[in-house]
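Propose amino acids for all 337 sites.
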């Protein structure tokens, strides 16, 4: 069933809490709803708006916003300890993680408390604490706008990378994700080698699914602001990936600079954008109604009443300061409209 809204406020539909309006917003449940919505062809401007946790509106949206609201989690089968499930695009990602923990299924516990919907997970290839969505995704189900038909894309063809996928490039503006098939395991596979995870898990009694989830949630809550209290979109910037030679040069000048291997990119290294912002003197910095969070420099916060334009201008300042100090470009992770 379709629910439509016209000239509707987006303040409660984006985690930055900026006040903009959409000319038209439609909540949909399935592909048939999408066929109806695109019955006369695609409008000039349209975009999917899931949980609004990775988006910054800088102006009113004069097109059609599509919000998935179907929230079913459907087991597809089990073999040799591997459990396959289908997750509708409108399922809150953290609700899915809790469901998996309750059912004793391993694979996404390290991705606890990541805001947003399951339909957005493959787009961004969400990741945290040494794990990424691509580690468990098998297939992505989608509605193809031009042909008004449905299709399924195997993970191997999703072009997953660090916060990257085919849905951000070749398929951007061409498909709407309706569901995701993922595989989980009944075999314990704790991954504790990132940051403070092992220490927090051991403090809770060892590597059980519940303990890992609670540890991850505690770490995230200690570092990240609650968007219900302080407007933000989580990590605003991506960690930059550079040539190993560049990383070595920087490390020679800054011996405490964190450097990580860039998965799937031989000869490249990943730097910590939060560290770069901190060392540029911006952690906790505020200007007007926007600031850098005092505990996590990757996060920009709306201090109250900021516009999307103000947030974007502040972000450009942060990028310029990091480039001035280190010669490194840091790109935005947030989708800016």
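Proposal:
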């Amino acid at each position: 069933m379709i629910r439509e809204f016209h000239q509707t406020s987006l303040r409660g539909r984006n985690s930055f809490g900026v006040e903009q309006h959409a000319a038209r917003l439609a909540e949909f449940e399935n592909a048939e709803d999408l066929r109806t919505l695109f019955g006369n062809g695609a409008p000039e401007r349209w975009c999917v708006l899931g949980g609004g946790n990775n988006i910054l509106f800088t102006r009113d949206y004069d097109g059609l916003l599509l919000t998935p609201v179907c929230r079913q989690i459907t087991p597809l089968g089990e073999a040799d300890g591997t459990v396959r499930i289908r997750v509708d695009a409108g399922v809150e990602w953290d609700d899915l993680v809790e469901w998996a923990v309750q059912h004793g299924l391993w694979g996404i516990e390290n991705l606890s408390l990541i805001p947003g919907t399951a339909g957005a997970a493959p787009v961004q290839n969400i990741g945290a604490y040494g794990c990424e969505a691509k580690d468990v995704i098998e297939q992505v189900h989608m509605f193809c706008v031009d042909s008004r038909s449905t299709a399924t894309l195997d993970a191997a063809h999703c072009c997953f990378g660090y916060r990257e996928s085919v849905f951000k490039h070749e398929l951007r503006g061409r498909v709407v994700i309706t569901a995701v098939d993922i595989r989980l395991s009944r075999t314990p596979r704790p991954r504790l080698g990132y940051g403070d995870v092992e220490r927090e898990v051991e403090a809770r009694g060892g590597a059980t699914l519940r303990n890992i989830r609670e540890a991850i949630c505690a770490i995230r809550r200690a570092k990240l602001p609650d968007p219900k209290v302080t407007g933000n979109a989580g990590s605003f910037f991506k960690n930059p990936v550079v040539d190993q030679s560049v990383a070595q040069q920087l490390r020679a000048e800054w011996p405490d600079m964190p450097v990580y291997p860039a998965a799937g990119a031989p000869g490249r290294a990943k730097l910590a954008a939060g560290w770069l912002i901190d060392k540029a003197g911006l952690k906790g910095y505020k200007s007007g109604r926007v600031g850098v969070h005092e505990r996590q420099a990757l996060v920009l916060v709306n201090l109250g009443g900021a516009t999307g334009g103000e947030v974007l201008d502040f972000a450009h300042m942060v990028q310029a300061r990091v480039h001035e100090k280190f010669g490194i470009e840091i790109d935005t992770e947030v989708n800016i409209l």
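The chain has a mean pLDDT of 93. Residues 231-336 form a domain with the Uridine Diphospho-n-acetylenolpyruvylglucosamine Reductase; domain 1 fold (CATH 3.90.78.10).
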